[in-house]
Amino acid sequence: MVFLGEERLWLAREPNQPDPFWFDDIAHYSVIDGFGKELTSSSLTIGSDLKDLRPENWSSALVGIWMKPNVVLMRPVQKIDGGSGKIYFEPVSNKPYTDRDSYFAFFNRPSDIDQPGEYVIDNNARNILYWPKDSALIKREKLHVNQLAAGFNINGKSNITITGFKITNYFGGLKGWAAGAGVINVKKNTQNLVVRDNVISHLKSAEGVGAIQLHHVENAVIENNTIVENEKNSGIRFGYSKNIIIRKNVIKRIGRTGIRLIETENVEVSGNYLTSIHGGHGNGMSVYLKNKNILVADNIIEDAPSAFTYHGSGKPGEAENLWILNNIFLGRVNSWGKNFSSVVILHNLFLAPEERKKALQIPGRESNTVVKNNIIDGFSSKPMYRDWEVSNNLYTSLSWTQSSKYHWSMEEGGEVDDDIADEIFQFVKSKHAVDRPNGENISAYLPTNLFKTYDFSYWSQNRPVGPSLIPAK
Question: How many Å separate Cα 226 from the centre of its chain?
Fold first, then answer.
């Protein structure tokens, strides 16, 4: 990453991106068909579109290529062949898609600088060519490049508190899985970590690493951090860890998943605000594979096409006990199945403003699922669930599977309220109160013995359906 004073410069590219922050948004890449023939793991054939053959234009060039599984990889161009219209790049292990179009973009060629705020690095001459938005900055500001990979590398040390820091401008290059992190622990076991009241911004990851990326941790609190403007980074990632609290963090404008859990146990994720989360695998929150005893409560997730996703490992007993309580999800919520048992879904708002009637989607074969007292804009279950506890949900609309054709019928206490849909959309815009009925008492479903630091007392009596985050009239 390159800065001129406080001004962020952007790596020049073709085609241009409306917002260069989302550099891996394939909606603004060049398209080729061929279904796996034009793009391989080491070459790209564009035929007659390869017109500029000047060696100096390609000596430091990069190509961004879309590969399985839905990732954009940046690789150096090794050579070009004008006769065949083929570009050879540093090989990757990923494979191209063979059942759809392929996408690519070129970066870091001098010819790509066509608007203020862009730069190119000439690796051979070891200089930077840039076009600042404000030429006056050249005289009074310094051009600086930070190639350090991470702000804090825990490296297996324990009993550490990181608080009150501004952690910014870390990248480290295109290679190195861990590059671009604010706080990281990867392979070595550690315990008793606190990361609190920090601002983590202007990171860039080539591999989607978290701004806070912690593996093999026992006992950690991640609280009141602001994580913003991190290009292709995830927000907070935990793996192979237990006894974790992720609470009251703000995660905004990042290029991958906001909060992700993989193979964790006893985790509270509460009171976080996540918004503007896009890019490949840009889910608001994800809980994948072997996770046990996870509480997701009081979070607001908006401007994320997939607000929340979860799935198990495929083996019974490896993923179980997930409580989804009192959240506002403004984007799709999907379970991908794979034997995640004992999922309890209580007092949430499920609304995908850009995809009406598709807000909540869970395969009916998952076992021991409870869905009560939610406001839902379309609930899809295929195959249709049979032995779940489903009651007292308020539907702003029904999904395509919610019909007698698919053996669905309205549950006890459930209803469709067309009028409340407008009120809910008004709440999304203006946060005003919404009148709705009380649901049933849920206190018996709450994991009060597992999560001692979370206050469940509000739910000791019947409350209006939907989240308490929406005021009731």
Answer: 16
Give the whole-angstrom CA distance, residue 312 versus residue 320: 8
SS3 for 422? helix
| Residue closest to 372 by CA, chosen among 355, 396, 352, 347 | 347
- Tokens at 307, concatenated: 């607000």
Half-sphere exposure of 327 (CA within 13 A, CB side): 31
The rounded distance, in Å, linking the Cα atoms of 473 and 469 is 13
Percent of residues, the chain, with pLDDT higher than 70:
98
Residues 276 and 46: their CA atoms lie apart, in Å, by: 34
Half-sphere exposure of 84 (CA within 13 A, CB side): 10
Instruction: Report percent pLDDT > 90 for the chain.
Output: 76
d(CA 351, CA 107): 37
Q: Which residue, chain included where needed, has tokens 């609309």?
A: 397
Q: What is the pLDDT of residues 16-31, one digit of tens each?
A: 999 999 989 999 999 9
Question: Measured between alpha carbons, how far is 412 from 440 in angstroms, rounded to an integer?
Answer: 11
> Per-residue pLDDT averaged across 219-241, rounded?
96
Domain extent listing, the chain: 2-143, 146-460
In this structure, what token pair is assigned to residue 213? 């990326």
Dihedral, CA of residue 217, residue 148, residue 170 and residue 29, to nearest 10: -110
Q: What is the DSSP string of 318-370?
A: SEEEEEEES-EEESEEEE--SSEEEEEEES-EEE-TTSTT-SEE--TT-SSEE
Q: How many CB atoms lie within 10 A of CB 254?
A: 33
The model's pTM is: 0.92
**Token pair of 287, please?**
């809980």
Integer Cα distance of 233 and 203 in angstroms: 7
- Report the Cα–Cα distance between both ends of the chain, in Å, rounded: 49
Fold exhibited by the domain 146-460? Pectate Lyase C-like (2.160.20)
- Asked if 450 and 266 count as a contact pair (C-beta separation under 8 A), the reply is yes
Query: H helices of 71-207, where?
Result: 137-140
**74: its two tokens:** 């940046």
Cβ contacts of 404 within 8 Å, gap of 6 or more? none
